[in-house]
Structure formats: structure tokens, C-alpha cells
Amino acid sequence: MPEPLAERPLRVGVVGVGHLGRHHARIYRDLEKSGSEAGGLGLVQLVRVIDRDAAAAERVAADLGVPHGSDLQQLLDEGVDAVSIVVPTVAHLAAAEPFLERGIACLVEKPIAVTLEEADRMIAVAAEHGALLQVGHVERFNPAFEALVAQQRLPLFIEAHRLAPFTFRSTDVGVVQDLMIHDLDLVLAMVRAPLERVDAVGGRIFTRSEDVVSARLGFAGGAAANVTASRVSIKPMRRFRVFSEDSYLSLDLGERHALMVTKGPSWDARAIDPRAVDPELMNDRDRLREFVFNGLLSVQEFRFEAREPLREELRAFLRCVREGTPPRVSGADGRAALETAVRIVESLAGSLAARARAENAR
Question: Which of 74, 173, 207, 268 has the lowest CB atom count within 10 Å?
Fold first, then answer.
């Protein structure tokens, strides 16, 4: 009889040890070495790393002191409990399906798949075989975003910017599925309403796919979001601005910093009527600022500890495997982000076609 999961180390593997996959392997190995009893996670054992590039697998395995291979069957034969799937997006389904069919938990990196049909297949296989499926939207585990969610304020308007220099990686997909999809997942998690309208503009700069895109999203109930992503920028940026009925939040995911402005205890809508304010106060900028920010509004600044979001994500994944609980980012969540990305790319294609027709008509 197999040893109960609660009484033995979780046996994990990593499929794909490129730029991101090697970090999955590193963290699992760290958890194994540390004993990782804290927080109810229990013990972990990194069984093997797999990559079709045998030399890459060998290098990472040598650095970490673990076995390696180039065939999925090697992991399947070793009775793993969970795997990270960190291969190119086009290979997500092919890599994950054999594990899901055996009921083995999978953390599939974002985006969940290239097409909605592949995402649906992956979700269906996981459900049929009772396998846990988590999608790697790592920003859900960013301490700055976790603090935002804790506020539980429904947004009216969101503005998101995710900019990055060109890295020559992930060119198998465009910037929408490469970078913007992080913020699409966050927006959907905050708004929690059906998406009704999508309008996108952008273009190709260095690759055959879109490299810079700005999308306007409209939701049932009136909430809206402007989401911009670029992988051809000079400096990186990961910022959110969230407006709700009673607050404004500026969130820097990269710097783990937030500024929240809320209505103060002395808030009175009549007090912001210029006709009701002392004219001398209106003409004194320092006094006016003090009146607004020390009286009408409350300003709070937050800085968050430098935790590694990927480590938090993998710990949460393993805890779900150990306890049999649902993941924070489910297959359905990953599909919703992908569906939004697909709609943005379709809208962008329409705007590019319209631009081409206009140029040809000149």
C-alpha cells in the first residue's frame, strides 16, 4: 500500500529547465534542502528535471545535484506527486496531459495554452482524472497585489502598464500572451464581472507578432480597464492604478510599493465645492494641500517585504497538493485570461487591417 501523502515527502519534478524552469527547479531544491516544514508544507523531494535539450537538463541537474533526463516517461515512471510544466506555450498541453491523465498535479506556466481549445482539453483531462491544475500567474503571489486584494474594493477604473526591454525570449507568442496576460489575470481577479467590450491598438516592432499593445476593456456593471504592454521599452515598469468609489491606489509591483488615498473621517462632499471654501485657502497652495490631505483625504504609504513571488507560488501549489485544496489560480482562471488575450489580439488585428486599408487608400 502506498505511503499516505501526509506522511512522506512530496515528490516533484520540473519539465523544461530554460530561463524560467531552472528557477522552478532551484526553488524546489531549496525547499528540499531546508526541510521546509514551516507553514504546513511538509517535506519536498525534487526527483528529476527534464528537458528535450539533454545538455540543458544536464547543466541544471549538475548545479542542483539532482537526476536529469530528456523523456517525460522518466518522471512518470518515478511516481511523482506534482510537476511544473515550464516548456514553450505551444507544448503545454502535450507536456501536461500525460501527468494529468495519471492524476498528477500540474503547475502549468502562463499562458495556459496557445488556443482556447487546448486550454479546454487540459481542464477537462484534469477534471476527469481528479488532478490538480494550477496556472502560473505569478503576480497573484506578489505581496503588493495581495495587499490590494485584502482591501476588497471593487474597482471602477484600472490602468495597468507592463513594460520591458526586448529579451529575445518567448517570441513564440506576442506581447499580449507574453506579458500583458499577467495583468489581464489581475484585472479579471479584481473586477469579477463579465467582459463585454474590447478595443486594442498596437503593432509589430521586432518580431512577427505584436510587440506593443494598449487595450481598453469594458465590463458588465460599468467597470473599465486600460491595459498597456510593451516588450520593446528601454526601462521595465509594472504599475497599477486602481480607482474605486472611495479610494485611489497606486501600486508598483516591481518596487513592491503602494500609495492608497481614501476619503478621510472629515470627508464632506460640500467641502469640495469651491464656492464653499475660503478664497484665501484656495490661493494658498500649501494650506490647500494640508486642507485636502490632512482633512478631506487620508493617505497611506506601504512598502512590502522582498519575498520572491515564484517561491510563494510554488509553496502555495505544493500546499494545495498536500492538503487537496483548490489552487489560487485555477485552470478556469488561466482560460479566462487566455480568452481575454485572444479577444485583444483579434481586436488588434482588426485595427491593423483598418490602418492598412486607410494607408492604401491615400
Answer: 268
**Residue 163 located in a structural domain:** yes
Question: Is 199 found in the same domain as 99?
Answer: no
Q: Indicate whether 194 and 275 sit together in one domain.
A: yes
Q: What is the pLDDT of residues 125-160, one digit of tens each?
A: 999 999 999 999 999 999 888 887 777 678 999 999
Bridge pairing between strands 247-252 and 237-243: antiparallel
- Specify the number of domains making up the chain: 2
SS3 216: strand
Containing structural domain, residue 304 = 140-308+342-347
What does the alpha-carbon distance between residue 116 and residue 188 come to, in Å, rounded to a whole number?
17
Q: Is 106 exposed, middle or buried (0-12, 13-18, 19+ CB in 10 A)?
A: buried
Pairing of strands 105-109, 133-136: parallel
Instruction: Please report whether residue 116 resides in a domain.
Output: yes
C-alpha torsion 59→63→68→72, nearest 10: -80
Question: Does one domain contain both 58 and 118?
Answer: yes
pLDDT in tens, 187-197: 999 999 999 99
Examine residue 182 and state whether it is found in any structural domain, yes or no: yes
Residue of 187, 301, 189 whose CA lies nearest to 248: 301
CA separation for the pair 141, 311 (Å, rounded): 9
The DSSP result for 245-283, as a single string, is SSEEEEEETTTTEEEEEEE-TT--GGGG-GGGS-HHHHT
Predicted model pTM: 0.88
